[in-house]
Every structure is written in C-alpha cells, then in structure tokens.
Amino acid sequence: MDRFNAMRVFTRIVELGGFAKAADSLQLPRASVTILIKQLEAHLGVQLLQRTTRQISLTLDGAAYYPRCVRLLADLEETEAVFSAARQNPKGLLRVDMPAGVGRLIVIPALPQFTARYPLIELEIGLNDRPVDLIREGVDCVLRGGSTLDDSLVARPLCMLDQVTCASPQYLQRRGTPQCLEDLEGHQMVEYFSNSTGKRYGLEFIADAQLRLIDLPKHVSVNSADGYLAACEAGYGLVQTPYYHVAQQLKEGRLVEVLREMPPPAMPLTALYPPHRQLSRRVRVFVDWMVDLCAQSTNGFFRQDSGN
C-alpha cells in the first residue's frame, strides 16, 4: 500500500463528502478508492470513516487522523517543490475562500493576470461570507474583511477598504437626507448579523476624529452581504458597506451615499493561511499577487477620489 496515496484519498473523501466524488476528483477507479481506505484502516488498526447508504462521517479516530494527514501531505508537497521546477513554476490545486463580493467584483475579473503568470496552478474558489475552518475543509488560504481574525493562522494585511453609508432614493424621499448625525433621529437601518458569532452590527461614523456608534430601529436583519444590500435597495433603511460592493449601484443611482463627511472606519482586508502552508509556493504567489492587486489604484476596491 502506498500510504501517502492512501492519505490523499482519505483527505479528499473527507473534503468532498464521498467515495465517488473523491475518485472522480483524483481520477481513480472507485473500487481503488475503497480498497485504499480499507488497507489504510487495516494498517492503522482503527476505523476512520463511518459509512452508511446516505452519508460518510468521520469516526473519532478519523477526526484525529485527518488534520495530521493534511499537515504531512502539505509538508511532503512543499519539500518536493523546493527541489523541483515547481519552485519556479508552481503547479497543482490551490483552494482559496473569500467573500462573495470580493470574488465576484474584484478578484475574478482580474484573475486572468494570475492564471497567465501561473498557468500550472488550478484554482478552486469558494465564495461566501461564513467563517471557514481551513484545516477541516482543506482550504489553503482565505481572504477576510474585518478585524476579527484567528490567532492560529498566519495573517498578511492586504489593504484598508473604503466604506460608505448609503440608502435608496425612495427611502430618502420618505425620510429625508441626513446632513449630520443628529438628523438620524427618525431614520432606520438594515441590520447585519453573523450566523456564526451571533454578533449584530449597528452604524459607525468618524466625526470630529472620534468613533461614534449609532443603533437605529430596524424592520429587517440579514446575514449575507448581498441580502444586506438588497434590503437597502428595497427601502428598508441605511446600510454601511465597503465601497467596491456598491460602486455600481451608486453609479446607476439605485443607491445614494449620505453623510460622506462622516464616513465609517475603513475595513481591513487580510489574507489568512495555516502555519503549515507558510512555505507553500502556490499560497505565496497568490498572496503576493493579491498584494499587488490591492496596490493598484484602479483595482475597484477604492473610490477614485479617496486618495488611496
């Protein structure tokens, strides 16, 4: 039995949730995948996977074995890369996760630059706003906005995102356009909340060099960035969001910026990856490319008159 190959099969089954999907991903016969797992379990003397007709789940031993496999396979891959042409021309699968708006509006439109430079890297991009367990889900790198970061991960700051306060024209016709924070009395907001932490977000303004936190009444709370803006466009109140996410709506007049002289604090955008991926050539070239992308004045992250 090729133990490293068996470990690759095992980790792929865990990540994809099934023997058939793992076999297709690795381009192996499905029978070979089943045999390798049986041989691996026999070699270890434990059951790693609980198999039923409907689902695959990890046993306690499997849950303990999985992160060790991920680390060992990553170390093997990077050790081989040091002594191969892959150091100059990295290749293989790179799994990256990022907020849907960052991916859809910024990264993917610019991605041809990256793939032209590194044609042997295959990208698998997850687009969502939920926290990702990098080890459990086999993700190499994540991009995240905000300051709540995982201390167990390596963090590479990318940029500070301009944020704006806005509302729909119909809402402002009904409630009036606020010119100062005192004018917010009688207004309402769309509330954003996190499913994972339960945290709920009010409005933040920088006025007279001080941070002002303001909670307004709300009729709608949502837990996704796209839903947050959809509720704003529907007239449910004020929202605060990175500029890139509403640039098109502001340009088309579907949303209107308010209280521009008292903007929300800028939001940090950070690349995060596990310590065992720190020497990964694929991760390094992707993060370096993101740093370059964020440094470009026309990247779409910043408003053109912001001074960034």
TrEMBL record:
Keyword Protein biosynthesis: no
Residues in HTH lysR-type domain copies: 1-59
SUPFAM superfamilies, per the entry: Periplasmic binding protein-like II, Winged helix' DNA-binding domain
Any matching Pfam family: LysR_substrate
Keywords, comma-separated and alphabetical: DNA-binding, Transcription, Transcription regulation
InterPro entries: LysR-type_TF_proteobact-type, LysR_HTH_N, LysR_subst-bd, WH-like_DNA-bd_sf, WH_DNA-bd_sf
Coiled coil: none
Source taxon at top rank: Bacteria
Family designation: Belongs to the LysR transcriptional regulatory family.
Name of the protein in its database record: LysR family transcriptional regulator
The species this protein was found in: Pseudomonas cucumis
Lineage, highest ranks first: Bacteria, Pseudomonadati, Pseudomonadota, Gammaproteobacteria, Pseudomonadales
